[in-house]
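$ ./design --mode recover --in tokens.txt
reading tokens...
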């Protein structure tokens, strides 16, 4: 697991405090630079080294309910795994530290974390949606890390977030600048990815609670 140097421990604890406070106060937080300085760039280089055929077209729903729907989303994804590379392992370990930190502060019962790289080719989008529906999923906390060096805001590709499912007014717009981390409650905030004029990269992830069935731990994805 990722262990920050001793001098960084206080900063890490302070970051966990800030995230926890924001989740209690507003349910979301936008952090321009939360991860260790080189981690986002290592992830970007690692992501760009992959061939196009290593990604799969993203769908909606999970397991038997999963389906492709080009009118809803057109991104391409590849799931992260510790066994894939040390770069992916370092990111997942950092998120494991955050999971433990939030559980200690908020008693959220976060059980594990799943994440995938997301590639949005020029013109790709993801229409307004919720990552979780009350009582119907075990995803409770969403994270998005952007991996777009020197992003020009004129390229588009913003993340729109609404304050609640029935709201007609956008609460915030987030540009996909390199290293920006967005965290929000999965059941509360509808969001949408706008098309960009160039390739757009990110890591989408979800902290989950355990939804075991028949004594079997609910699997990821």
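writing sequence...
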């Amino acid at each position: 697991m990722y262990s920050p140097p001793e001098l960084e421990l206080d900063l890490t604890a302070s970051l966990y405090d800030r995230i926890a406070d924001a989740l209690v106060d507003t349910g979301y937080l936008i952090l321009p630079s939360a991860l260790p300085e080189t981690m986002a760039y290592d992830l970007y280089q690692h992501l760009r080294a992959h061939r196009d055929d290593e990604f799969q077209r993203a769908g909606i729903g999970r397991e038997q309910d999963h389906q492709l729907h080009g009118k809803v989303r057109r991104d391409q994804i590849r799931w992260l795994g510790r066994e894939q590379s040390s770069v992916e392992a370092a990111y997942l370990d950092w998120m494991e530290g955050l999971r433990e930190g939030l559980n200690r502060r908020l008693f959220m019962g976060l059980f594990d974390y799943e994440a995938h790289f997301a590639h949005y080719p020029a013109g790709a989008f993801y229409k307004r949606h919720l990552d979780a529906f009350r009582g119907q999923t075990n995803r409770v906390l969403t994270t998005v890390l952007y991996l777009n060096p020197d992003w020009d805001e004129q390229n588009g590709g913003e993340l729109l977030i609404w304050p609640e499912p029935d709201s007609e007014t956008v609460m915030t717009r987030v540009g996909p600048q390199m290293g920006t981390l967005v965290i929000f409650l999965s059941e509360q905030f509808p969001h949408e990815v706008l098309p960009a004029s160039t390739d757009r990269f990110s890591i989408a992830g979800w902290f989950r609670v355990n939804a075991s069935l028949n004594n079997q731990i609910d699997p990821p994805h």
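exit 0
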